[in-house]
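Escalated from tier 1: glutamine holo job.
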Amino acid sequence: MELRICHLYPDLLNLYGDRGNVTTLVRRAQWRGISVRVIEARLDDPVDPDASDLFFIGGGEDRQQRLAAPDLRGVKGPALREAAAAGAAILAVCGGYQLLGHYYRPAGGPDLMGLGVLDLHTVHPGPGSRRIIGNIVVREAGAGRILVGFENHGGRTYLGSGARPIGTAIVGSGNNGQDRGEGAVWRSVYGTYLHGPLLPKNPWLADELTAAALRRRYGNTAGEVALAPLPDVEEHRAAAAAAGRAGARGLSWPAAHAQTPERPA
Ligand code: GLN
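Tier 2 regenerated the structure:
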């Protein structure tokens, strides 16, 4: 199997080490013997909806978002919408997350129209308003798995009925500081405010994205692909340390897979 990743705007949207998310996806696939191809798509580069199964967009401030938004909608929009509807996975962080929604209304200047692949919009309350900054711990809706990260945004994101939050912020603010929701999901499209980067400390989400991407290309009739378990000892230790620093108590992570052989360096 080959994991086909497309990294969108690697030079433009890459706050707080967001690029590390791509590195994590690549390494976890290689540790499992899955080959990986990463395509980078910058401003003006078209995207082939069939060539990649996992798209990543990082964060950026309003200035970078203003550059990326028309390109995301115009040059890459139809292909990304087609890929998402066909089951491709997308992960977008912060500024990139805001641009997957219908629009982002900044503190000044015109609205930035988004891709509209997630049913949400984002509004910055205006100059002088409080930025949402700090460590964040999220409990996933449903399975209750934990995400840890760092948020820093002025925009407040509001979900429509076509998207559901990834989970609930148990420390920090998340989407808008009002409803405790964090992030948004539709099919295999995920948006979140969590930087850090996100995936090294939250391997379950990395694997969810990878499984969705591989399922699109190689899934059997039941749509399943099996991912070999990885030990994730350091990953879970890092997550627990981050959660502890954030002040979240009483959380636990799955035990390491004892039978898994040491992974190659
Ligand atoms: N424009 C955004 C905000 O401040 C994006 C911030 C970010 O990506 N860190 O709301």
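The CA atoms of residues 1 and 34 lie 6 Å apart.
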